[in-house]
Amino acid sequence: MTAIKEIDSSLVTVGKPVEGGCCWTSFDDNPTLPTDATTKMSTVEGFESLGELSENGFTEGKTVDTSEFKGWHGSTVLTEATGEQNTYKMEFIEPNRAAVAKLRYGAGNVESASDGSVTHIKGVAGSITTVPLVIDELESNGYLRRTVVRKASITSFDDVPHQRGSLMVYGMTFTAIEDDGRMFDIYRAKPAAPASV
User: Fold this and answer.
1) Hey, where are the domains in the chain?
2) The pTM is what?
3) Mean pLDDT across the stretch 45-60?
4) Considering 100, 111, 141, 196, which has the largest number of Cβ atoms within 10 A of its Cβ?
């Protein structure tokens, strides 16, 4: 194993979307999740593209709940983690894409045309279910980075702007739910080199 340098600027990166789609989900009951960073999501059965995200990309958050125990003199003598929450905030800018509408309104409440665009949405309360999320990025050092949220529940919705000069955006915050002992996986890999001619 090669020793890592004390300072290595090639390990610094900016997240940017991959070509062809950056966020995917499945409305199947038990979809097979990807287990690498290089398999094209368009070839993974049961997954649908959620299209383009806003220029804000996505934000990954983590909070830890703790209990603090104090000694007789009032100072903290022990801190113990009692819970953890991982959240993902995204703004989808293709509201007329059926998969995006299904996320917001429930999969059974959206009808679509043959081209995948929305034709009808039924407003039915309590229609939100858990779904997997797959987010693909291209790091500035050339590596592919794939975040697979095994199960996610939408825990908040942003207001949808309907103003001239503003994009209609579906902003949502997802909370990761533990599945098979973990909440998410992050895979990284160099993309395959193109075949020589």
Assistant:
1) 17-29+49-64+89-187
2) 0.86
3) 92
4) 100
